Amino acid sequence: MRPILIAMVAVVGISVALVSMAFATARPEKRLASPIYGVTLPEGYRQWALIAPAQEAAPLDELRVVVGNAVAIEAYRDGTLPLPDGSVLVKLAWKRVPSPEFAPASIPGAATTVQVMVKDSKRYAATGGWGFGRFIDGKPADEAQHRTCYACHQSGVRNHDLVFTRYAH
Description:
alpha+beta, Chalcone isomerase
């Protein structure tokens, strides 16, 4: 009985090692990129520092939070504008719903989009140095939605490096 148990443990150990090696050597899953710009959801963005919260009025009626990578956060803290190449901003948005516990408050409801801006003045020279990505449930929105990004930012915040978000000190 004891030799059978030892053999079983050895087989299980070898199987676990082989499976672990397979996962370790497997190529990482390719992240989906936005049409036009090729922007992807950055790894670890949910752990990035807060730049500012926002509330979008009707008809969108959303709660939003903008976070940034270390390059963007340093520029915001220093008051640097335009933001330097390598800056990445991510906006997370949820439907705004009334709080069931506290009537004057709102809470996040269903997630709507995650929007990404990547600063690369050479790659995105035609769009003010910014590449855009809009994602719904982790997948890029269609090309028609991405065609609106630059036009909206260019018309609204042309003199603020195409960035709507101000730093919440």
